[in-house]
Amino acid sequence: MLTGTQTPERDKPLRETVRDAIRSRIFDGRYGPGTRLVERDLAAEFNVSRLPVREALRMLRQEGLVSDRGARGAEVSSLNEKDVEDLFAVRHSLEVLACRLAATRATAEDLADLEGYLDQADQCLAKGQLVEAHRANSEFHEAITRIADNGFLRAALEPLQGRMNWIFGYANDVPELILEHRELLQAIASGDPEQAAAQSAHHVDKYRQQFPEDYRRTHLAEQRKKP
Fold it and tell me: Residue 5: pLDDT band by 50, 70, 90 thresholds?
């Protein structure tokens, strides 16, 4: 059943509410890689019809978080070592460009929005809400893409966003991640595209190098939680 923060929002389509609920469960480890996602079971769990579940799974396939497995139906996607390295390589090129453009196009309102996401991440962290803190950090990056205001860039990044957020979810030091994002915000606010590009490249490369250790530690912690 959809409860709390998963309660359908008045102006939000039900399929998006269901998508967000499934996505959250993927990010917090409740639906691990390889978990089968059966429309009938999800509809019963969320107390909705199968149609919004079907649409939610379709959107998650587009994000790369869910895969088709023929007769097995849908399941949570997994990323192997090469997938992760390839994703970081693409992310490096696209996000550096996004930050370069954002530095020249961000308005005062845009910068305030970016700071708002980071304040939200800090608030969630203080409450021990790690999943919500990771979500706010991911929304910070998505907002940079919007500010860059390049349709082709956005179209290239959107199908990768879910997998990028999945990678962010394995960052162990969330306070450090928020601090990195604040430094990136300062670089964008400077209006200097080269400074923003350099800070973005540093940010991506840092987490590319430490991802294997973050993944190992977080994955082991998730395994210990399971009965």
Answer: very low
